[in-house]
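ok trying again, last paste got cut off:
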Amino acid sequence: MQLTSPRLRAALLAAASLTLVAAVVPPPKALGIGDALFPELGNPGYDVLSYDLSFAYKDNNSPLDAVTVIDARSLTRLETVNLDFTHGKVASAEVNGEPAGFASVGEDLVLTPARPVEPDLPLHITVRHTSDPRGRGDGGWVVTDDGLAMANQADAAHRVFPCNDHPADKAYFTFRVSAPAGKTAVANGVPGALPARRAGAATTWTYRTLHPMATELAQVSIGDSAVIHRTGPHGLPLRDVVPAADRERLEPWLKKTAGHIQWMEARVGRYPFENYGVLIAKARTGFELETQTLSLFESALFAGGGGYPEWYVESVMVHELAHQWFGDSVSPRTWSDLWLNEGHATWYEALYADGLGKYSLERRMREAYQRSDQWRAAGGPPAAPKPAAPGEKIGLFRPAVYDGAALILYALRQEIGAKAFDRVERRWVGEHRDGVAGTADFVRLASQEAGRDLATFLEPWLYGKKTPAMPGHPEWSAPKSV
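nice, full thing came through this time. structure:
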């Protein structure tokens, strides 16, 4: 076992005797909350209230020294406490101020407190560990040309820090990131009240969220970055993080964000968080990601010239912005509720492109309708997707939960009318703001706005192997089957 600092090695030696004592108790087990798609993700028995994460970055070839502090509340009597964590080395752990034993089982870190934690009591956990950005292509740290960023969706936050890695357990976050001179560190939320602390050649940057956040949405960027500030609608602080050398080239794109927010607010209400901006990283990810308040984009999207057309780039920017309401502020209860995130983001992406006169909403929905049965056969219906294949961590993100799910929203609007549909959208993000909600909640709310039970109408759209007939479009031919 090779650690990266004398401090971590010393802490490991100090904890060695406790680990030996813990070895005589029954062997620890990996646990989960039983999510159908990620059965071992999340952990029972406690509710996380906040994370305080400290990272010390040196370079892309070295693990980061890290400390994770978790404040939670016990829900049951806990003789052991399971956290999701892998791809890092643990030096020591404490539970409620006392040293705790620790062991890795599967992708769990199992802590054994000095004494059991009784129900409904504070649970304070400290883990000193490393966080390794090297050698993984399945999420967590993303290596960029000039540093690091995070891409934790769906189940990769625990490859960065110990956590309860399921969106059903949201919490507040504080980030403390130390980086060498010349590097800029940025994270979700707002800067800490105190100035960055300088120790030798390193600077420590502090950020905190003002709203609870799912672990999959955490973001830390370290690089040769420019941080650009401006003001959006009703004084909303906007903050973009871009490669410093590309600042001027990217400015035409960055200044569009305020208009995008205004467009979204006209449809679903006030932006739900403390600030917003885009993080443009020099990395090849193959996706963009709605990390809370700071959406991640790969720089190739904004290449210009022979790249993507302007209307498409803007629509993708609106897609990630829409997620701030749908998926971030209102998080999925289970991963099978992913269609509520991606379907809504795709819906507003398509609606924005329609408004630009480049790709009509009706055309896109008609084309999705023609492919819908194929998507359902390949990946399952939108609200009951098949698990991703082993080794394909983003395999869950299939067309059925994007355009296939947006097609459900189109069918709902056709069925209940545009005015009732707009009320559903506003109520959804308003009533579940900063919370967790699932498919059954959406069906219930839509039924209330329609004034009738919509379960019989929506369930075939959500769970059926075949795509139902589209209301108002008898001329649309039956979907093509495989």
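cool. The chain has three domains: 1-139+152-218, 224-321, 330-463. The domain at 330-463 is CATH 1.10.390.10 (Neutral Protease; domain 2).
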